[in-house]
Amino acid sequence: MLRILAAAALILAGLTSVALTQETRPPEVAGLRGTAPLADNSDSPRMPRVEDGAMRRVRNYPEQPPTIPHHIDGYQVDRNANQCLSCHARARTGESGAPMVSITHFMDREGQFLATVSPRRYFCNQCHVPQVDARPPVENDFVDIDSLINPTGRQ
Amino acid sequence: MRKILTLLRTYWRTLSRPAVHLSLGTLTVGGFLAGIVFWGGFNTALEATNTETFCIGCHEMRDNVYAELQTTVHFTNPSGVRATCPDCHVPHDWTDKIARKMQASKEVWGTIFGTIDTRDEFLEERLRLAKHEWYRLKTNDSLECRNCHSEESMDFTRQSRRAADAHQSLLVPGEKTCIDCHKGIAHELPDMSGVEGWQ
């Protein structure tokens, strides 16, 4: 009996030592959070620059909300004011030269067109966002529908 | 009434007659020194009330407008140059400054009698207060903005294309002044419905 117990203890000790050495070994694969130990905070990445004054980006698919080609720091969009609309509203585009809010945004949920932007489309940032020059942490293998339809690149 | 008149007459008699006991030297030198003290004191008081610490000494300013300023580019920015309350809200020219100071005495009244004691009371007054400042900046051609942001020193090639286009087509010909487009850059906006250029 004693012998069995001793053997079991030995095996247990061996296993824990293996587990310990595995734990202390430096991690070979770094996740998105970096190599910092779990209890510590990893270094925060640099804040990337917002694309400003750039040309319009091509949409990746027809339904994609167009991206915002300028910075929108401190733009107030709440019940008091909508700074986006101070340029992009229909009546403001003449002076601002900005593209008008799409007519689809005037439609309520019953499909009725209203005279102005529908309340459910009022908060621009829900769909439209500015772009930053960040390196994507995960590779993206998105394929444009055009290259799917026409893989050889014929027009 | 008659008592007051006799009192005034006695004073006038004393003031209009030459001094009997004081020498001309005492009067001139004394008057000069007193002038320095009074004018210096006036100026010091003027300077002291023209600081941000004085402005945010009242809770109305500290908890509302100052708190909102802290999130904007006029408080923190890459170059570390910042605007304090009087930079934008008090004209630099002497006469304009005194005029604004006299208007601001209403704010002292307000803080003593608690016109704006809560956030809600401030929000109710916000549109009226904002309109005062928009009107002031509109009529003086955004002078306080231009104390730092000179149109002549703007390098349009270093601005974003959007900003450069707007400044060149509207600001330079004098069609618009800073405040026409740049409302709500240092504090939050009130309900803008009905304000020109807003929805």
UniProtKB/TrEMBL annotation, chain A:
<comment type="subunit">
    <text>Component of the periplasmic nitrate reductase NapAB complex composed of NapA and NapB.</text>
</comment>
<protein>
    <recommendedName>
        <fullName>Periplasmic nitrate reductase, electron transfer subunit</fullName>
    </recommendedName>
</protein>
<feature type="binding site" description="axial binding residue">
    <location>
        <position position="128"/>
    </location>
    <ligand>
        <name>heme c 2</name>
    </ligand>
</feature>
<dbReference type="GO" id="GO:0046872">
    <property type="term" value="F:metal ion binding"/>
</dbReference>
<keyword id="KW-0349">Heme</keyword>
<feature type="binding site" description="axial binding residue">
    <location>
        <position position="105"/>
    </location>
    <ligand>
        <name>heme c 2</name>
    </ligand>
</feature>
<keyword id="KW-0408">Iron</keyword>
<comment type="similarity">
    <text>Belongs to the NapB family.</text>
</comment>
<feature type="binding site" description="axial binding residue">
    <location>
        <position position="88"/>
    </location>
    <ligand>
        <name>heme c 1</name>
    </ligand>
</feature>
<keyword id="KW-0813">Transport</keyword>
<feature type="binding site" description="covalent">
    <location>
        <position position="87"/>
    </location>
    <ligand>
        <name>heme c 1</name>
    </ligand>
</feature>
<comment type="function">
    <text>Electron transfer subunit of the periplasmic nitrate reductase complex NapAB. Receives electrons from the membrane-anchored tetraheme c-type NapC protein and transfers these to NapA subunit, thus allowing electron flow between membrane and periplasm. Essential for periplasmic nitrate reduction with nitrate as the terminal electron acceptor.</text>
</comment>
<feature type="binding site" description="covalent">
    <location>
        <position position="124"/>
    </location>
    <ligand>
        <name>heme c 2</name>
    </ligand>
</feature>
<dbReference type="GO" id="GO:0042597">
    <property type="term" value="C:periplasmic space"/>
</dbReference>
<keyword id="KW-0479">Metal-binding</keyword>
<dbReference type="Pfam" id="PF03892">
    <property type="entry name" value="NapB"/>
</dbReference>
<dbReference type="InterPro" id="IPR005591">
    <property type="entry name" value="NapB"/>
</dbReference>
<feature type="signal peptide">
    <location>
        <begin position="1"/>
        <end position="21"/>
    </location>
</feature>
<feature type="binding site" description="covalent">
    <location>
        <position position="84"/>
    </location>
    <ligand>
        <name>heme c 1</name>
    </ligand>
</feature>
<feature type="binding site" description="axial binding residue">
    <location>
        <position position="70"/>
    </location>
    <ligand>
        <name>heme c 1</name>
    </ligand>
</feature>
<dbReference type="InterPro" id="IPR036280">
    <property type="entry name" value="Multihaem_cyt_sf"/>
</dbReference>
<keyword id="KW-0732">Signal</keyword>
TrEMBL record, chain B:
<keyword id="KW-0479">Metal-binding</keyword>
<keyword id="KW-1133">Transmembrane helix</keyword>
<feature type="binding site" description="axial binding residue">
    <location>
        <position position="187"/>
    </location>
    <ligand>
        <name>heme 2</name>
    </ligand>
</feature>
<dbReference type="GO" id="GO:0019333">
    <property type="term" value="P:denitrification pathway"/>
</dbReference>
<keyword id="KW-0813">Transport</keyword>
<feature type="binding site" description="covalent">
    <location>
        <position position="85"/>
    </location>
    <ligand>
        <name>heme 2</name>
    </ligand>
</feature>
<feature type="binding site" description="covalent">
    <location>
        <position position="148"/>
    </location>
    <ligand>
        <name>heme 3</name>
    </ligand>
</feature>
<dbReference type="InterPro" id="IPR051174">
    <property type="entry name" value="Cytochrome_c-type_ET"/>
</dbReference>
<feature type="transmembrane region" description="Helical">
    <location>
        <begin position="20"/>
        <end position="42"/>
    </location>
</feature>
<keyword id="KW-0349">Heme</keyword>
<feature type="binding site" description="axial binding residue">
    <location>
        <position position="149"/>
    </location>
    <ligand>
        <name>heme 3</name>
    </ligand>
</feature>
<keyword id="KW-0812">Transmembrane</keyword>
<feature type="binding site" description="axial binding residue">
    <location>
        <position position="89"/>
    </location>
    <ligand>
        <name>heme 2</name>
    </ligand>
</feature>
<feature type="binding site" description="covalent">
    <location>
        <position position="55"/>
    </location>
    <ligand>
        <name>heme 1</name>
    </ligand>
</feature>
<dbReference type="GO" id="GO:0005886">
    <property type="term" value="C:plasma membrane"/>
</dbReference>
<feature type="binding site" description="axial binding residue">
    <location>
        <position position="182"/>
    </location>
    <ligand>
        <name>heme 4</name>
    </ligand>
</feature>
<comment type="function">
    <text>Mediates electron flow from quinones to the NapAB complex.</text>
</comment>
<comment type="similarity">
    <text>Belongs to the NapC/NirT/NrfH family.</text>
</comment>
<dbReference type="InterPro" id="IPR024717">
    <property type="entry name" value="NapC/NirT/NrfH"/>
</dbReference>
<dbReference type="GO" id="GO:0009061">
    <property type="term" value="P:anaerobic respiration"/>
</dbReference>
<dbReference type="InterPro" id="IPR005126">
    <property type="entry name" value="NapC/NirT_cyt_c_N"/>
</dbReference>
<keyword id="KW-1003">Cell membrane</keyword>
